[in-house]
Amino acid sequence: MKLSQVWLRTYSWDFITLQNAMLCQAKSALHKPTSDGHAATKELWESRFQTEMRLDEAIDLCRRCHRMAPFCFYNGNTFAALARDLIQNLALPADEAYIIRSLAGHIVAGVATDEEVRAFREFCERKEA
Fold first, then answer.
1. Which of 19, 61, 65, 112 has its CA 20 to 30 A from that of 9?
2. Residue 83 in contact with residue 114, Cβ under 8 Å?
């Protein structure tokens, strides 16, 4: 399995914005870009999403974008859902997919322990070899 590829190419900024809008609508929350983080996050995303990178780099980009808070609500959910979708597309055995999706989601949300981050990187290195 080649883990260095253009992981995020199908996730345009318009897609991310729509994803956030749907999450907000489902929870009756305001969907609106933030004045502080939206422009910078959009610029970062658009400069990288069509670039070849390793899986751990794609997950880290999602984490960074979450932290930049481009939307008023559900930034973590927006980018964590995207990360979980990437893992789902790896066609892993169900038990391994569950663990790796969980690790990726924790990394994006910013709640992963050092051990979880290390386990995810080791998974990526094993799959790259």
1. 112
2. no
